[in-house]
Amino acid sequence: MATKKKMLQAAAGQAGGAGLDIDELFSTYLYTGNGSARSINNGIDLSNEGGIILTKSRGGSQNFALADTEQGVGKYLQTNSTLPTRTDSYAQETYIAFNNNGYNLGIDSGADTVNRNGYQYVSWTCRKAPKFFDVVTYNGTGSAQNINHDLGAEPGMIIVKSTSGSDSFRVYHRGAHASSPQNYYLNFNEASAPAAATTIWNDTAPTSTQFTVGTSASVNGSSDSYIAYLFAHNNNNGGFGPDGDADVIKCDTYTGNGSTNGPEIDLGFEPQLVMIKSVDDSGHWLLIDVMRGAPQGTYSTVLRPNTSDPEANSSGIWGIDILPNGFKPNQTQSQYNANGSKYIYMAIRRGPLAPPESATEVFDVSSYSSNGNSNIYNTGFNADLNINTDVTASENNYIIDRLRGSPYLKTNDAGPDATGASTFWNTGNNLLDIHTAWWGNTTGVTSWSWKRAPGYFDVVAFTSQASGSTKSFSHNLTVAPEMVWFKNRPNSDPWLIYHSALGLNKYLVLNTGAAEATEASWISTPSATEVTGIKDNMTYNNSTYIAYLFASLPGISKVGSYTGTGATLNIDCGFTSGARFVLLKRTDSTGEWRVFDTARGIVAGNDPLLNLNSTNPQEAFDDLIDPYSAGFTLTSSGMVNVSGGSYIFYAIA
Predict the structure, then answer these.
(1) CA neighbor of 398 nearest in space, from 458, 363, 449
(2) What are phi and psi of 23, to 5 degrees?
(3) pLDDT, averaged across the chain
(4) Which comes out higher in pLDDT, residue 464 or 194?
(5) How far is the C-alpha of 611 from the C-alpha of 630, rounded, in Å?
(6) Element (DSSP H or E) covering residue 217
């Protein structure tokens, strides 16, 4: 049955409105093999729409396995090999079904593993869709021929492989040559430089309906069979997202500068996957994605589809900073950032593009029970921010996010980034691995998780500008944030909090219970695309920061304020089933950052009280907060409802 979002997209699409969301087109999926038949549910409709799956063992020296719906189940190619399509009995046990929400894997009995018990895997899935991706099969003739496709746009990159012969994967990329890319080819299975040859693409540029192959047996041998994978290049003509105007894929070039502060590549969107290849000389194809790890300011986790090597993440080798509008290299390795060298890339946008329809899609609160899983939480989505603490003991409140990777901060402390676990974010899809050195199998851990989504929540890692200028950064919240948390990463500076109810002359500090502080015009009114005007004295020069941006989304979240009455007070957030999470702070006087949630209890009775700015364990207090279908109710008790007191709050349904 079609979801409400898909039905709205279909109706709007008929009128030239909404387009597909990137989460319906592309998935990076992490999982642990179990050696038995299983389903990989990644939300991609392969059975009806068609597409490809590329799988690699992350820690082992196994081949890349590339399957597609055109050749069918029980078959795959190896991108690091010239071998034809594998169809033996093992292959028939590997990819065994394409589904409307992913695919099925069979038992694992061979060397080219995709499901070996205990092995860690990554799979990338692309769905066929106009202006994004297409798959075409054809038979060779030995004479130049045009091959029809349904991409509906000029391809930015084409990969062709003989499925019947032992030939290299031939690659066309629009950036392989400045003026005549159709005269050049690369090999996807090799770390080689582009080569000139008119026999590959017949000196003919691809169009929105066709591409041309020449007389080379690698792309058009008589009576041989071939498959072509076509990737689009959007240039303000993508047609995706709720307004039907978003780009989701780019295939282009950049020039390296040989610096750890590399060139900024402006995509017009924030990527979730980037593939890079040198075109000035030989060099590996580098695959980087945010699911496996591309933390800001340090090395990225890299796989190379032209080798069987396990993933690498050595410091000082490869690394890109993910930016709100693109990416930039942060290391000097010659294969992707030599001074003056040219590189091609393919980048795919981070999703989702549409706001969530339910709070459970983007927020999870869980209280851990000792079940032997070492604090691995299934949040139901790929989380981007997490705060966790042991509420039964005098413990820190740890805060981690996907953009920073392994480092952690504390909401109760002004200290800098500290090194945490590399497995926080990449254990598996929908899984969050809370650092076992903190908690082990402690039963009192509570965990709050957020997913980035338009209109709801965003995370930005940024570097402050030089002294003498106000600071600013762009974001992808798509609406003006109503609350922003700022933290300097390398220094022991306090958490600065902007809240729309306080205006532009006041700020709060997250790691203390202090009342609002005054700093005239310390920030300008945030917009739907930027946070600007942060005063020079509020940040260090050329220092790194993390920012969390929160907004009110009808039925999902509410950023607001109220004045205490000393009597029962209903806070209407526009919800229908009450609040699962509430954060409160008194602003005109000292008051802690009080946090309540339904995992620990928002009940009609005494409530456990926990403070984000303190290491104190939660306390059993008098009745402070009660359930209310439209939001939450504050009782006549003090502390969170003092008569005449000014308060801010943040609530999630």
Answers:
(1) 449
(2) -65, -15
(3) 93
(4) 194
(5) 24
(6) helix 217-220
Q: What does each C-alpha distance from 20 to 7, 243, 352, 437 come to in angstroms?
A: 11, 10, 10, 42
Cβ–Cβ < 8 Å for 55, 119:
no
Q: Are 171 and 142 in contact (CB under 8 A)?
A: no
Please report which confidence band the pLDDT of residue 14 belongs to, taking 50, 70 and 90 as the band edges.
very low
Closest CA relative to residue 580, chosen from 492, 488, 450: 450
* Strand (E) or helix (H) holding 570: strand 569-572
| 26, 126 contact by CB (below 8 A) | yes
Tokens for 45, please give them.
Answer: 């409709």
DSSP secondary structure code for residue 310 in this structure: P
As given in the structure block, the two tokens for residue 584 are: 């409160």
pLDDT at 12 over 50: no
pTM of the model: 0.95
Contacts of 134 (CB under 8 A, 6+ apart): 128, 149, 150, 151, 229, 230
Residues 317-355: pLDDT tens digits? 889 999 999 999 999 999 999 999 999 999 999 999 999
What are the C-alpha distances in Å from 598 to residues 388, 437, 627, 653?
15, 26, 9, 10
Q: Where are the domains of the chain?
A: 19-127, 133-232, 249-349, 359-450, 457-550, 557-652
Could you tell me where the beta strands, DSSP code E, fall in 149-216? 155-162, 170-173, 184-187, 195-196, 210-213
Q: Which of 440, 421, 445, 393 is nearest to 615 (CA)?
A: 393
pLDDT for residue 568 is more than 50: yes
Local structure of residue 319 (DSSP, 8 states): -
CA–CA separation, 336 vs 329, rounded Å?
8
Residue 543, Cβ neighbours under 10 Å: how many?
15
Instruction: Please say whether the beta carbons of 75 and 87 come within 8 A.
Output: yes
Q: Give the HSE-up count for residue 457: Cα atoms under 13 Å, Cβ half-sphere.
A: 23
Average pLDDT over residues 244-258: 97
